[in-house]
């Protein structure tokens, strides 16, 4: 009877069974991915999982936001298309960024976004997500409810809501920065 070495026992302890392992891949973002507004999934991944996909996939990021992206299936290739541009713009993804995709099954990916230094980005908060989606949809901010609960904003005096689109007030990147950094909120005197 053969005995397992400590190295073999350690490997068994930390390695899930092959059939339960989730498939992951990474993509280094280059200019064509940005310009073409689509991301081609790796051939080996498509060969293994391509038949499992519906017409859309779901991308989940660590801050909890969920994005639905339309797939384009053509000639054995599968691309993330409609909705991909919004995902890229919203997360300020540029050439040189690295995205790590973990396939969780049922057309759902968990995505980690790393900047050009290969460090994971700071994801926008859910309050900012609500604001950006409302702004992109052309909705006008008219009440405190659009920004979130009182616990998120502290006092009624911290923010004045105007009947103006947020994008008209400030460039969106500055607007997001101000909202996500409470030290920029002015206290009434």
From TrEMBL:
Pfam short name (any one): B3
InterPro entries: B3_DNA-bd, DNA-bd_pseudobarrel_sf, Plant_B3_domain
Location (main, coarse): nucleus
Subcellular location: Nucleus
GO molecular function term, any single one: DNA binding
Domain TF-B3: 24-117
Domain of life per record: Eukaryota
GO cellular component: nucleus
Keywords: DNA-binding, Nucleus, Transcription, Transcription regulation
PROSITE patterns: B3 (PS50863)
Record Gene3D superfamilies: DNA-binding pseudobarrel domain
Protein name, as recorded: TF-B3 domain-containing protein
Source species of the chain: Aquilegia coerulea (Rocky mountain columbine)
């Amino acid at each position: 009877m053969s005995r397992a070495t400590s190295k073999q026992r350690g490997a068994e302890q930390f390695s899930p069974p092959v059939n339960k392992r989730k498939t992951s891949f990474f993509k280094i973002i280059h200019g064509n991915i940005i310009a073409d507004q689509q991301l081609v999934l790796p051939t080996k991944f498509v060969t293994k999982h391509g038949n499992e996909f519906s017409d859309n996939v779901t991308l989940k990021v660590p801050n909890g936001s969920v994005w639905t992206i339309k797939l384009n299936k053509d000639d054995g290739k599968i691309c993330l298309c409609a909705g991909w541009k919004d995902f890229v713009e919203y997360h300020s993804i540029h050439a040189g960024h690295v995205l790590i995709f973990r396939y969780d099954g049922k057309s759902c990916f968990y995505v980690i976004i790393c900047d050009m230094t290969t460090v994971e980005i700071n994801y926008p908060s859910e309050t900012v997500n609500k604001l950006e989606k409302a702004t992109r949809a052309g909705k006008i901010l008219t009440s405190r409810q659009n920004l979130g609960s009182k616990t998120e904003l502290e006092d009624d005096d911290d923010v004045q809501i105007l009947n103006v689109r947020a994008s008209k007030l400030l460039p969106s990147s500055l607007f997001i920065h101000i909202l996500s950094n409470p030290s920029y909120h002015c206290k009434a005197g």
